[in-house]
Write a structure and sequence with these properties.
about 130 residues
Length: about 130
């Protein structure tokens, strides 16, 4: 069972990390995006493919940034705390040239109190 304190800690950590990811993307900083993932994270970016590890994930985001994608925003995000160290975020999303669904962002609390993405599963639908 997750205590109220653990729930708030997870929600705050995920909210901060998610905002840092969005700020990095919107400023064209692919390395900053990749920094929000664990070193061995797995990202399923439909229909583009699966990317494992921060180097491959950074390259994916860099390509999108280079192609002129920007201004990402989440639409009606839902955050569910699973346990004292993990939470799942789901949301719609949009940016200047695309939109879609975040099926699952698995955020995990790190030893330093920050949250990082272990799994990222999203889909571009338009």
């Amino acid at each position: 069972m997750v205590t109220d304190e653990q729930n708030k800690l997870m929600q705050d950590a995920v909210t901060k990390a998610s905002e840092q990811w969005k700020a990095a993307f919107n400023s064209g900083d692919a390395a900053g995006c990749a920094a929000q993932y664990e070193p061995t994270a797995v990202m399923h970016a439909r229909p583009f493919g699966t990317f494992t590890g921060t180097e491959a994930i950074q390259a994916f985001w860099q390509q999108l940034i280079d192609d002129g994608f920007s201004d990402v925003d989440y639409i009606d995000p839902q955050l569910k705390v699973i346990d004292a160290t993990s939470a799942i975020l789901t949301s719609g999303w949009k940016m200047n040239k695309a939109g879609g669904t975040i099926h699952k962002e698995l955020w995990v609390l790190q030893d330093d109190g920050t949250a990082k993405l272990r799994e990222d599963d999203f889909e571009a639908e338009d």
